[in-house]
Design a protein that fits this description.
Order of helices and strands: HHHHH
Number of helices: 5
Shape: globular
Number of strands: 0
Radius of gyration: 15 Å
Strand content: under 5%
Helix content: 55-70%
Structural class: mainly alpha
Number of domains: 1
């Protein structure tokens, strides 16, 4: 039962980020953004593959380059997420702005 509550809590945080009214930068959003970056970081593999396809790259290039690029950005998202989660109470970068742009992997995928 405790595990279910933890999962439900994390999902509530992730879904709250989808509400534009809750996008104001503050410690809670910074913490939530960090958690979202950690758990959704593997979507960078898809994002990077889509980006390469949109650039007109061939399939022979997309698979290996997408894997390497996806791995780099996945690790970057995890590290950024850990930093934002651990330092959520510190207003750095200025006014709790995101460390990365776009701020989450889901937003990055939407921009593709």
């Amino acid at each position: 039962m405790l595990r279910f509550k933890r999962i439900a809590f994390l999902l509530a945080i992730l879904f709250a980020l989808e509400n534009p009214m809750l996008r104001a930068d503050n410690p809670v959003i910074k913490f939530s953004r960090g958690i979202e970056n950690i758990f959704t970081s593997p979507t960078e593999y898809i994002t990077q593959g889509v980006r390469l396809v949109n650039e007109g790259r061939s399939n022979a290039v997309v698979a290996p380059a997408g894997f390497v690029s996806g791995t780099f950005w996945t690790v970057s998202r995890i590290v950024g997420g850990v930093v934002e989660t651990v330092t959520f109470f510190v207003p750095l970068p200025l006014h709790y702005k995101p460390l990365m742009n776009p701020s989450t992997p889901i937003e990055a995928l939407r921009q593709q």
